[in-house]
Recover the amino acids of this structure.
């Protein structure tokens, strides 16, 4: 028999499966090797729950860190506010005592006139504050002028270089 006749004979023989068709037992074995769709879905759901729990745990950790950071920031802010208030109060009290001492000294120099000493001390304090603010303003203005001169000088040099080309 030739090769073509063998195939035709095999296809027609009873009990022999046609080529490409596996026996029933092999088909059943392959079907049992395939995972059950319900079982696969169950595993996926279990893994999804586990991942969900992990994500929730990570979110909780992030929220706890944020809360601790906020508490720490608020604590620092309150501490700095109290320190600022205490520093301002100490400064005011110190200035008050200095002015009182100055007023007493001026009063003694004016022949015991308390009102003259207080007025002179007040005028001196106001003059000192005005002088300090004026000096600071002049210093800031000079610094700003220097910055502007440097900026415009650089622009002028850049424009001159551009014209020369």
């Amino acid at each position: 028999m030739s090769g073509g006749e063998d195939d035709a004979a095999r296809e027609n023989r009873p009990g022999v499966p046609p080529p490409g068709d596996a026996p029933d037992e092999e088909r059943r074995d392959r079907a049992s090797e395939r995972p059950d769709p319900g079982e696969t879905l169950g595993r996926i759901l279990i893994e999804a729950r586990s991942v969900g729990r992990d994500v929730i745990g990570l979110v909780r950790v992030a929220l706890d860190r944020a809360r601790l950071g906020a508490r720490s920031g608020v604590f620092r802010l309150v501490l700095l506010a109290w320190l600022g208030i205490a520093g301002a109060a100490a400064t005011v009290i110190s200035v008050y005592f200095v002015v009182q001492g100055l007023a007493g000294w001026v009063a003694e120099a004016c022949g015991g006139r308390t009102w003259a000493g207080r007025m002179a001390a007040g005028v001196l304090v106001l003059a000192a504050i005005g002088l300090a603010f004026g000096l600071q303003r002049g210093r800031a203005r000079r610094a700003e002028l220097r910055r502007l001169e440097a900026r415009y000088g650089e622009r002028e040099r850049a424009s001159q270089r551009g014209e020369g080309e």
